[in-house]
Amino acid sequence: MIINNVEKAINEQIKREEHSSRIYLSMASWAERNGFPGASNWLYVQTEEERIHMLKLVHYLNDRGGTAVIPALEAPDAKFKSLPDVFQQVLKHEEYISASINELYSTCTKEKDFTTANYLQWYITEQIEEESTVRNILDQIKLAGSDKGGQFMMDKEFATMATAKRAALALSGGATAVV
Fold it and tell me: Over the stretch 12-63, which tens digit does the pLDDT of each residue have?
């Protein structure tokens, strides 16, 4: 049986992960409408990945005898200034998710729920990878510059990254839709 405070904290993380999926979906749609098919593809894959993260928590909570609550969500922003703006917001959001997972981990250790704390190690490692990936993307966007040729090349790179990420998700057992 899961401890009430841990159950409540996991349900909050479920909400955050689902909202993350919606944020990236909104960003993907913006990128698609604004001529960045590669970035759009990468963001659509990111949408799926965040949903998988949410589902893993739902299953974990239910498996531990808790009750996963699927919350109502507010609509994410749909307007962005530029592709660099999108990825600045992605980094900011990933840092927020990292902090929230760390808080969840802290709750688990305070409650002496070491099983859940151990389970969260995967999420902690995943967040390190997510932040690093987005920082690298921002560095590449900066190097590509604001000219159309640089943006075009960067968008091609996003398409390659999306394909690799989709393959990795498929290998890990995550379902992905073809975009």
Answer: 999 999 999 999 999 999 999 999 999 999 999 999 999 999 999 999 999 9
Residue at token pair 């968008």: 155
In angstroms, rounded to a whole number, what is the distance separating the alpha carbons of residues 117 and 98? 14
How do residues 124-138 score in pLDDT, each as one tens digit? 999 999 999 999 999
In contact, 61 and 67? CB cutoff 8 Å: yes
d(CA 40, CA 38) in angstroms, rounded, equals 5
The sign of the dihedral angle between the CA atoms of 165, 52, 98, 38 is positive
- Among residues 142, 34, 161, 16, the alpha carbon closest in space to that of 87 is found at 142
User: Is 24 within 8 Å of 89 (Cβ atoms)?
Assistant: no
CB of 58 closer than 8 Å to CB of 22: no
Q: Where are the domains of the chain?
A: 4-171
Separation between Cα atoms, residue 5 and residue 120, nearest integer Å: 15
User: pTM for the whole thing?
Assistant: 0.88
Q: Report the topology of domain 4-171.
A: Ferritin (1.20.1260)
